[in-house]
C-alpha cells in the first residue's frame, strides 16, 4: 500500500506537467485514434520551416523541435503526455509500481503490440532502448539509472542509483521511443536512422532531402488506425512561400510560423492561434575562466537590470509571450511558485551603478544568436543596453556554428537562445544549467565551485513531495540569480495556422501524436 501511495504521489507530480499538452479544439476524451471516419482516406500535409533529420529515438545528439512529429508518431513510449486529457498516461507500460524507497520501478508491458515489421514487443526491447540510451549518452539521460532487469517477456524492473522523483516524465521523452532489439541487431544504428521501425500509429515510408517526409497509417496499431491514411511533412524554408501554400490549399497546417507572418493574415479560409510553449528565451553568460564577463559579476548584474523584457515580448511575439525571471514554463513539474525566488527588475539607475562598480569602460559585449526571433530579440536588447551605456554587438550564426562556438571555441560573451528540457521538470533544468560543474557541457564550467550546492541539487531530485521539491529549486534559483550567471527573459509561444474546417490541437511542445485532426 505504501509503495502504491508513493507511486501516486509521483504521478501527481507528473500530472502537474499537463500544460505540455494541447489545447483541445474538439472532444477526444476517448483517446482512440480511430474515432471518426471523415478523414479515413485523406492525406494531411504539414508545413515546417526546418527539415526534420532525426528519425531514430536511439541517438546521442540533440534533436530539433521539428523532429518530434516524426519521433512521436513512428514510436510509442512507456508513458505519454496526453495532449487531450492533459495528463501523463501509460502507453506501452500497461501498469507500473515503485518500491517504497523509490529505488525500483516495476513496469508491466502491454501485450500483443507489434513493430511495423511484425516483430512482437517484449521486455528485451525495453531493456535495449533504456540501457542503450544511457550508454550512448553517459550521464545525460539523467534519471539516476543503474540498470534494467528483465523479469519475464512482459515485465521489467528499472533500478536506480538514487531516488528520482520525475522518473515517469523521463519515460515520455524522445530518447525512450521503444526500439526493436532484434531489428537493431539486423541493421545497426545507421539502419535504424535510415529506416526507423517503431510500434507507433504511423510507419516511416520515405524522405526526400530538402523536400518532404512521408508517413503512412499503421493499420494494425494497437489503439486503432488513425483517420488519416498518410501524413506528409513538407519542408518550406521560406515562410512567405509556406503561407501562400497554406492559402492555396497545397498544405493543411503550418507549425510554428513566426508570428509576424500571421498578425495581418486576413484570408477567410485560414485560421491561426498561439499558445504558451515549453521554451524560455534566455541569455547565458560565458562562464569560462578566461572570460571577462565570467569574472565580473557587477557587469552581469548591470545587464540584468538594463534589459527591457516587455519590449522584447512586443517585438518578438506581439506581446503574446510572458515575461519571466525563471528558466522553465508553468507547464514544468516542481516549478517554484512566483515570489519564492530572487528576481531582477528593469532599473537603469541600478544598471549604471553596477557598471561603475564593474569599472566598465565601453568594452564590446558580444552576444551570439541564430537568425529569426532570437536575432530580433537581440536587437531590442541591444537598444536596452545602449540606454545604460553598454556596448553590445550581435553575431548572427547558423545552428552548426553556434554549437561550435558554444561547446568548443568559447568565443563569445553571452548566448541568447530558446531552450527547454524534454521531460519538463525543473530537475533537468537545474542539474543541467545551474550545476557549478556541468557534466554535459564542459565549456560551461565556470569559476563557481560549490560542493554543498552540487550535493543539494542531486538530493532534491529524489524528493517525492512536489511542494518541497519546488521549494528546493526556489533556493537554487535564488543562488543563481544572485550570481547573475543567467538572464531569463521570456516564456515563448507556439503558433499554429490551419485551413478552416480542420479540427486541430494547439500544442505547448511539438509532441503531436496520432494526428486526431480531421475535417
UniProtKB/TrEMBL annotation:
InterPro entries: Peptide/Ni-bd, SBP_5, SBP_5_dom. Keywords: Signal, Transport. It comes from the Bacteria. Gene3D superfamilies: Dipeptide-binding Protein, Domain 1, Dipeptide-binding Protein, Domain 3, Periplasmic binding protein-like II. Residues 88-436 form the Solute-binding protein family domain. Coiled coil: none annotated. CDD domains: PBP2_NikA_DppA_OppA_like (cd00995). One of its GO terms (biological process) is peptide transport. SUPFAM superfamilies: Periplasmic binding protein-like II. One of its GO terms (cellular component) is ATP-binding cassette (ABC) transporter complex. One of its GO terms (molecular function) is peptide transmembrane transporter activity. Residues 1-28 form the signal peptide. Belongs to the bacterial solute-binding protein 5 family. This is ABC transporter substrate-binding protein.
Amino acid at each position: 500500500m505504501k509503495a502504491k501511495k508513493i507511486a501516486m504521489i509521483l504521478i501527481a507530480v507528473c500530472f502537474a506537467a499537463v500544460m505540455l499538452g494541447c489545447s483541445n479544439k474538439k472532444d477526444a476524451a476517448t483517446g482512440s485514434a480511430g474515432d471518426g471516419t471523415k478523414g479515413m482516406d485523406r492525406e494531411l500535409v504539414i508545413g515546417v520551416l526546418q527539415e526534420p533529420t532525426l528519425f531514430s529515438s536511439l541517438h546521442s545528439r540533440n534533436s530539433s523541435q521539428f523532429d518530434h512529429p516524426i519521433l512521436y508518431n513512428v514510436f510509442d513510449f512507456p508513458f505519454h503526455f496526453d495532449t487531450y486529457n492533459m495528463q501523463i498516461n501509460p502507453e506501452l507500460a500497461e501498469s507500473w509500481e515503485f518500491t517504497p524507497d523509490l529505488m525500483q520501478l516495476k513496469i508491466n508491458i502491454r501485450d500483443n503490440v507489434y513493430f511495423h515489421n511484425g516483430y512482437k514487443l517484449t521486455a528485451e526491447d525495453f531493456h535495449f532502448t533504456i540501457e542503450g540510451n544511457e550508454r550512448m549518452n553517459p550521464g545525460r539521460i539523467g534519471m539516476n539509472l543503474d540498470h534494467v532487469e528483465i523479469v519475464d517477456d512482459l515485465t521489467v524492473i528499472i533500478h536506480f542509483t538514487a531516488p528520482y522523483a520525475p522518473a515517469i516524465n523521463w519515460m515520455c521523452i524522445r530518447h525512450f521511443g521503444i526500439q526493436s532489439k532484434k531489428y537493431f541487431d539486423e541493421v545497426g544504428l545507421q539502419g535504424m536512422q535510415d529506416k526507423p521501425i517503431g510500434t507507433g500509429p504511423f510507419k516511416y515510408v520515405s524522405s526526400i532531402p530538402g523536400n518532404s517526409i512521408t508517413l503512412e497509417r499503421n493499420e494494425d496499431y494497437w489503439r486503432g488506425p488513425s483517420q488519416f491514411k498518410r501524413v506528409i511533412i513538407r519542408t518550406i524554408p521560406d515562410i512567405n512561400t509556406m503561407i501562400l501554400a497554406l492559402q492555396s490549399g497545397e498544405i493543411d497546417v503550418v507549425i510554428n510560423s513566426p508570428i509576424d507572418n500571421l498578425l495581418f493574415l486576413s484570408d477567410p479560409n485560414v485560421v491561426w492561434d498561439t499558445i504558451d510553449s515549453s521554451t524560455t528565451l534566455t541569455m547565458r553568460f560565458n562562464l569560462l575562466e578566461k572570460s571577462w564577463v565570467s569574472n565580473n559579476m557587477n557587469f552581469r548584474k548591470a545587464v540584468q537590470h538594463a534589459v527591457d523584457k516587455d519590449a522584447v515580448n512586443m517585438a518578438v511575439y506581439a506581446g503574446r509571450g510572458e515575461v519571466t525571471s525563471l528558466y522553465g514554463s508553468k507547464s514544468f513539474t516542481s516549478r517554484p511558485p512566483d515570489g519564492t525566488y530572487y528576481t531582477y527588475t528593469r532599473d537603469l539607475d541600478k544598471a549604471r551603478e553596477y557598471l561603475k562598480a564593474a569599472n566598465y569602460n565601453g568594452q564590446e559585449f558580444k552576444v551570439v544568436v541564430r537568425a529569426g526571433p532570437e536575432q530580433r530579440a537581440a536587437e531590442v536588447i541591444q537598444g536596452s543596453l545602449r540606454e545604460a551605456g553598454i556596448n553590445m554587438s550581435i553575431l548572427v550564426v547558423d545552428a552548426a556554428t553556434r554549437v561550435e562556438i558554444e561547446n568548443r571555441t568559447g568565443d563569445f560573451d553571452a548566448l541568447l537562445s530558446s531552450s527547454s528540457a524534454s521531460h519538463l521538470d525543473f530537475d533537468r533544468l537545474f542539474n543541467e544549467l545551474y550545476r557549478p560543474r556541468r557534466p554535459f557541457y564542459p565549456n560551461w564550467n565556470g569559476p563557481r565551485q560549490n560542493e554543498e550546492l552540487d550535493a543539494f541539487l542531486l538530493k532534491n531530485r529524489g524528493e517525492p513531495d512536489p511542494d518541497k521539491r519546488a521549494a528546493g529549486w526556489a533556493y537554487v534559483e535564488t543562488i543563481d540569480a544572485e550570481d547573475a550567471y543567467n538572464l531569463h527573459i521570456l516564456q515563448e509561444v507556439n503558433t499554429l495556422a490551419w485551413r478552416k474546417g480542420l479540427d486541430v490541437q494547439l500544442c505547448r511542445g511539438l509532441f503531436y501524436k496520432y494526428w486526431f485532426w480531421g475535417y
